[in-house]
Amino acid sequence: MSGLVGAPKSGRRSTAGAVYSVDRLMSGVIHVGGIGVLAAVLGICVYLVATVLPLFDGGRVKPDIAPEQRLDLPAGAQLAALDEYGLGAVFASLDAQRPGLEVRRTDTGERAARLELPASDSPWSAAAFDAGGSLRPLAALGARDGSVSTGVVSLSRGGDGRVPEALVEFARALEPAEALGAVRLLDVTESTAGRRFVVAVHERGARFGAARGGRSGVGGRRSDGLFLERAVPIENPDLVRSVFVSRDGQNVFAVRSDGQVERYWAGADGPGGAGAFVKADTLPMLAAGDVTAARMLLGGQTLVLGSSAGAVVAMSVAPDPLAPTPDARRMVVTDSWRIGRGAVTTLGISRRSRMLIVGDAQGGLTLRHMTSGKVIADVPGAGGGGGEGSIVAAAVFPRDDRMLGLDAQGRLTRLVVDVGHADASMKALFGKVHYEGRLTPEYVYQTGKGDDSSERKMSLVPLIWGTLKATLVAMLFAAPLAVLAAMYTSEFMDPRVRKVVKPTIELMASLPSVVLGYIALVVLAPFVAEWLMALMVGLLLVPVAVVGAAQLWQLVPAGVRSKVRPGRGWAHLLLVGASLGLALFATVRLAPVLEARLFAPSESDVRVASGLFNDAGTAPASVSAWLGARSSVTREEERRLRREGLYFVDGKLVTPDTSAPLPEASVSRAGSLRVWLDGARGEAWPGWLLVLGVPCVAIAWLIVLRVVPATGAGGDAGRFALALALGLGGAVGVSFALGGAGFDARDSVLGPFNMQNALVVGIIMGFAVIPIIYTIAEDALRGVPASLRSASLGAGATPWQTAVRVVLPSAGSGVFSACMLGLGRAVGETMIVLMATGLVAEMNTSLFSGFRTLAANIAVELPEAERLGTHYRLLFLCGLVLFAMTFVINTTAEVVRQRVRKRSAQL
Amino acid sequence: MRVSSLMRTAVVAMVGFCAGSAWGQNTGTASQPAKEQRSSDQSSTDQPVRSARVDSALSDYRPVPGISGSIKSVGSGTMNNLMGHWREEFNRFYPGVRIEVEGKGSGLAPTALASGASQFGPMSREMKASEIEEFERNVGHKPTQLRVGIDCIAIFVHRDNPLTELTMAQAKRVFSVDGASMTWGELGVTDPAFKDRPIGLFGRLSNSGTYGYFKEHVLENADFKKGVREMEGNAGVVQAVGADRFAMGYASFGYKTADVKPLRIKGEEGGAIMPSYETAESGEYPIARYLYVYLNHAPGQTLDPLRAEFVRMMLSRVGQECVLKDGYYPISATVAKEELAKVGLEVAPAAQGTPRQ
Predict the structure, then answer these.
(1) Average pLDDT over every residue of A249-276
(2) Angle, CA of A404, A410 and A413, to the nearest 5°
(3) Residue pairs spanning A and B at CB distance below 8 A
(4) What residues are paired with B290 via a beta bridge?
(5) Cβ neighbours of A514 in B, within 8 Å
(6) Which among A714, A746, A747, A904 is least buried, having the fewest CB atoms inside 10 angstroms?
């Protein structure tokens, strides 16, 4: 450098000092800048990791009160309520001598106040407090005469160390019932609309009550305080040890001490319907031992049982078309887990989250989040086996900040708990989780909650899937187009045309992705919906026509060709334009004809649809094995049945009636691609043809080019025609084979048509990606030394052979980098996905359904996420995963590029 | 024909605009076209919807002297337009008051209120227990909640769809994972063009209050089906349903266009109810909710005059006319009185019935 600068100019021999200092300064600046960039990237990475890591932390627990505090209660007293701050606890006693409510301090166990239970004509015989269904501290009292009252036992706001006052409000829900006897067991809950449900097990029977109307005025009728009464046909009420009602009032669960759980269903008209409940199903508790504790988890859908063997089992009701129950639902065990210490003696729940606190026979307390399976606190007890030290009451404070345990000897344990991010764990984020109300474990992403009781589903797998799907579809569309366009521009196009074309394509890159997303949503999506078949036909027809036209051009006598000189200027484009126009015209004409023919319903389909069918009688064994006795089938199952020649109409199997003549104008027989996609009718093979047409022709052409010598009859045009025929024939053959073998494209790559789908987004994302790939690839191709080209042409190769065999391999690494840069853009694309996919977190391979990508998910959900909360950190984890994905892609790309470069350097 | 295509273009423009503004600083009077669009819809409504009117018992707003200063509101994006309208009204009375409105999400309201960065926190949902707790930890008392309007949520289908009503139980089955994917025939549609076609589902983005409300009250906390497509804004949902004959979607009733048709909703008790002001207010129509503005107001203290006047204005007839203009329903005079009492204000008796100046 100094040699250059110091070259003698006007007699000066040495470099000026200023030049040196500028040199030093700039090199310093460049160093600082370079290191700064590295530091910034690393810093972002560290920040991401630091924000995400707390998600995987466990909880922290420490004792909160002085040891050996005692809280002595009369036998049989029940923990009824805690105040908001957890300073006071209300214990209810139904003891005949001294019935009432006592408010005790949770730090010292001292009595702070005593209240009477609401007055009643006959003594109270049963009580249920702090039920898990609703978010409010509801309570119910049942009396000897069979009457039931419901209400709220709550503590007023204490604060400042003052023990709050208890508020007790009750109102009669069910009238006395002499015939049924005293109330033994109770449960109460309130629906999301504030509608109250109560269930009572008497000595001789059981009753259910549903309030008429709910809590609010807007969005629901206000309750008038009256209850509708219905019978619950529990067979042996004396065997029942606990009873629960689900929050929606649809189900009553009776837990028997031998571990059987019986479910009673409210009927098709819901809890407000008429008549008695219907017995639906029974679930034996799978773990050994007797049921020693039972509790409804927050949300009132999941029932948790604890056994004498230390097992904790969670169960909920899931829809199952195969279930032999009147409501096509059954109870499923969603989780089972074992505490390490003896029998479970009591269960308590959080009012804020889906945490469960388990008290055991050895005086230990375990706090666990039931969705993530994370054990937040595991506190061994003071020991003292033999049941003296067993926990009789356990509770999580309303704010999830403390937990309380009380053992049989009156020893009080209160602990401060930092639950951290209880609902996040590796399993919850990346594994399949058995959520409540689902039949099987699933990957689900749905963080948008109803109220606090709803279970947050945080599996990132559907988002990663969506990101990959978006990228793949976009690249399938963009990469070939962009690379071929770059080859055309650099190798074949007249420089004057190139000067116009290249900047125009580069200009596409400046289109904001919001605009592209908007175009996708409003212009392209309806267009694709209307011209779907034409689009699919065009995908095959347009390239074939353009290539075919070029081949035909070769047949034109050389004299004529040289006059038009297609290698120069606009003539080339004219030829391409003319063939394109012709292809489009053919597509528009051909598509409706093909659609009507290929995707028409079969004659049997039409017969069944017009009502011409016979009862199939008993199903063949192969079908009845999976069909069972159900009332509805999915589209996949309908297609499966159809392959057996069976149809499913109005809940029964039928076969088409072939004897009757087909009515003339009954059901339209013309095919429609969208109807075909949405349904189960029509043949399977045309779907495969749509998918396989283009690849088969392309493969056939490649093979023909290799195998058949160019000197054959007809030359290149002949070879192309042969390839086309072979390809199409092959596609039809393979499609028939696949369709015949029972595979239906509608089960995999095609699916019900949604207007916001992967195809539309892929095309538009392709537009965003094409300029990037095109520009860089074109630069790389043009960078190939002209000597290579000249040598190749001079040796007798055609321009095409030169481009494909010499230029493209030499520029391979550059072209590959271009594709990878495009890929990087596609992975992180946000606005297009946000606007035009419908953001569905589905995991399917269908071209006609949407997806939800990591980037779009972050953009949508971050503004609403509470800072540093679980959701917030989850979104940062999305960012980190995205970062990791691009990192892996770029590293792979770099490694591949290096190898390619080495190889091309040998050229 | 021409008119409807123009309107579609307008909706489309609005969707684009809303989406665009969501990424910029979504401050100030965003989405002005929305208002025009909706007011033109009201006239082209083909359903016999009783027109809503502001409760005549609501008091008029009378300005008081000596109000100055500046106000900042941070919160719901749904209520962004509404806050903008209130700003305009308030500035008409008090041109000297500077009002800044920032609407990026209801979730931002509690923190901004607690830190003192804003004086008003519009929210399209109730504060969650955790947010109230956080607020209380920082400030020492609970936030004050004011009900300022009613958002009536309708379930829309395409205008050509023969379906006219839906029960709440059906709505739950259609939208939630509790039911299998359904065809229109399963909802009782006999038209052969619809009978065997699957129902396409649309809803709001998962960060919106409407999404949460629908999930809690219609799906009873069950999950949305995976296939429910989430669209940006009420207008996005309405536009998508209007463009797809086989679609169904939920959005605020006020965003109805001529391309869509609201369904009558049948609760467990009573008949099928068409969304309207009367049915929402009385609780007959089952899916309606309040819109809220939260304040940082210590109980037992008097509100400073600037905020007091703004609250009074929101809950007066002028303020409630803004609510109506924005596609939501106004609250009744009784509710307004209750809300004013929460912050220690009374309806000025002298102001009743006298025309505004």
Answers:
(1) 90
(2) 25
(3) 189
(4) B150
(5) 16, 19-20, 23
(6) A714
8 Å CB contact of A219 and B289: yes
Report the predicted TM-score, pTM, of the whole model to 2 decimal places. 0.89
| A270, A850, A867 member nearest B111 (Cβ) | A867
Closest CA to A238 of A266, A208, A209, A258: A258
Residue type, B333: A
Chain A residues with beta carbon closer than 8 angstroms to that of B290: 218
CB burial of residue A565 (10 Å; 0-12, 13-18, 19+) = exposed
Residue A585 pLDDT more than 90?
Answer: yes
Whether residue A863 and residue B200 make contact (CB cut-off 8 A), yes or no, is no
**Pairwise CA distance, residues A45 & A211, whole Å:** 55
The answer to whether the CB atoms of A866 and B206 lie below 8 A apart is no
**Rounded to whole angstroms, how far apart are CA atoms B162 and B158?**
9
The DSSP string of A761-788 is HHHHHHHHHHHHHHHHHHHHHHTS-HHH
The answer to whether residue A545 scores a pLDDT higher than 70 is yes
Residue A752 three-state SS: coil
**By the 8 A CB rule, do A840 and A448 touch?**
no
Q: How far apart are CA A482 and CA A484, in angstroms?
A: 6
Calculate mean pLDDT across residues A216-238. Answer: 83
SS3 A23: helix
Contacts of A842 in chain B (CB under 8 A): 226-227
Q: What pLDDT, on a 0 to 100 scale, did the predictor assign at position A670?
A: 78
> DSSP label at B183?
B
Task: Identify residue B261 by its one-letter amino acid code.
Answer: K
CB contact under 8 A, B223 and A446: yes
- Mutation for A interface: B268, B328, B335, most A CBs within 10 A: B268
Check residue A665 and give its pLDDT: 60
**Per residue, what are the HEC states of A204-225?**
CEEEEEEECCECCCCCCCECCC
**Complex confidence, ipTM:** 0.90
CB-based burial label for B28 (10 Å; 0-12, 13-18, 19+) = middle
